[in-house]
Write a structure and sequence with these properties.
The protein is an alpha/beta fold. It is 36% helix and 25% strand. Bound molecules: adenosine-5'-diphosphate and magnesium ion (MG). Magnesium ion (MG) is lined by residues 43-44, 202.
């Protein structure tokens, strides 16, 4: 199967700082890909290139190619809003809007022109069910999202991302602020979602990568050192630097 994301000869500079170096990487569709590596190695930077979030950072320069579904996403005629609709993102800190649970989920669909209450109700219910949050909140949809626990807020953010029907979900250390039980819930959720979505997750937790991903990519100093099937990468890494990292010799 053709990879849904194809990155080639990608270089990214913050002003003069060379943050991504000649990255070549294929990301398969409807699977979980994990980015691992020590802090500052460029994981978040690469993740942000995929929905053009780096566009918002002044002084960023990018060279090379990223194709998603065969489209060059840095091409001149790309509609960035439409691209971002197809690529949802969830961050380390859950960031619900200071609005009701319902309005958080309905926000994106409304922005994209859906006004019909019955239609929005269906989207809200489906999205919350997909994020395995519905049973916990179905009687409190009018309550502020900020009244939820941290783990619930993060699942709400996932539901909000799913509400606009993306193809790809980017998760940047989405569980690192959560307790172990909430983390496990999100890992289980990722397992559920991978049959329908392409998921790319940055994690500083190698065990998490091993538990949930099918492909793991190891980064160091802005370079992809190794990208492989997760079991292969953790059992028989082909690069000595990968081996050093996964055996805890640095990072
Ligand atoms: N907005 C920015 N401006 C300048 N440098 C940045 C910016 N964001 C990240 N960097 C630098 O780029 C490198 C990679 O950062 P990042 O992608 O956040 O790494 P990681 O997610 O792997 O910890 C780091 O050296 C970081 O300091
Ligand atoms: Mg990061």
């Amino acid at each position: 199967m053709e990879p849904i994301i194809q990155i080639d000869k990608l270089n990214l500079y913050y002003e003069t700082y060379h943050a991504l170096k000649n990255v070549k990487l294929d990301i398969p569709e409807k699977a979980v890909t994990a980015f691992i590596g020590p802090s500052g190695c460029g994981k978040s930077t690469l993740l942000r290139t995929l929905n053009r979030m780096n566009d918002m950072i002044q002084g960023t320069r990018i060279e090379g190619s990223i194709q998603i579904g065969g489209t060059e996403i840095y091409g001149d005629d790309v509609h960035v809003e439409a691209l971002r609709k197809k690529i949802g993102m969830v961050f380390q800190q859950a960031n619900p809007f200071p609005k009701s649970i319902y309005d958080n989920i309905a926000y994106g669909p409304r922005l994209h022109g859906i006004r019909n209450k019955a239609e929005l109700d269906v989207i809200v219910e489906q999205s919350l069910k997909q994020a395995v949050l519905w049973d916990e909140v179905k009687d409190y949809l009018k309550r502020s999202a900020l009244s939820l626990s941290g783990g619930q807020q993060q699942r709400l953010c996932i539901a909000r991302a799913l509400a606009v029907q993306p193809d790809i979900l980017l998760m940047d250390e989405a569980t690192s602020a959560l307790d172990p039980i909430s983390t496990l819930k999100i890992e289980e959720l990722v397992q559920e979602l991978k049959s329908n979505y392409t998921i790319v997750m940055v994690t500083h937790n190698m065990h998490q990568a091993a538990r949930v991903s099918g492909q793991t990519v190891f980064f160091l100093n802005g370079e992809v050192v190794e990208s492989a099937n997760t079991e292969v990468l953790f059992s028989t890494p082909s690069d000595a630097r990968t081996e050093d990292y996964i055996s805890g010799r640095f990072g």
